[in-house]
Amino acid sequence: MTYQVYAGALPDIGDEVTIAGHRGYVKNVNIMSTELKQIDNPRVIIPNSKVWNNPIINGTRMPTRMIALEYSVSYTTVISDAVSVKTHEQERGWLHRMIRDNE
């Protein structure tokens, strides 16, 4: 019965999460631990005592995220040219591909 109460808080397999300072994709959840595969490939096994006693940041549960990008240009740059380059790169979808390829 207790498991049913907390089941909604558990991350699903494949979710991108940060738990107890470790960020990665959930590979396995069992009664003792939660296993993550970090983005640079190491696997991290986190005891569920830490999972339950720390915030879980789940980047997969919401369909959209905000990404803030900063651009720097020289003082001599024509602002409309810089905006045009940014818009062109955004339309090419490079950022979306970069994020998808890292999953």
How would you describe the overall organization of this protein?
It holds the Pfam family MS_channel_2nd. Keywords: Membrane, Transmembrane, Transmembrane helix. It is found in: Membrane. This is Mechanosensitive ion channel. Residues 12-60 form the Mechanosensitive ion channel MscS domain. This protein has 103 residues and is an alpha+beta fold. The protein has two domains: 2-58, SH3 type barrels, CATH 2.30.30; 66-103, no CATH class. Helices cover 31% and strands 24% of the residues. It has four helices and five strands, in the order H-E-E-E-E-H-E-H-H. It has helices spanning 2-6, 48-52, 79-92, 94-101, and strands at 16-19, 22-29, 33-37, 43-47, 56-58. It has a five-stranded antiparallel sheet. Strand 2 (22-29) and strand 3 (33-37) form a beta hairpin. The longest helix has 14 residues, at 79-92. The radius of gyration is 19 Å and the shape is elongated. The two termini are 34 Å apart.
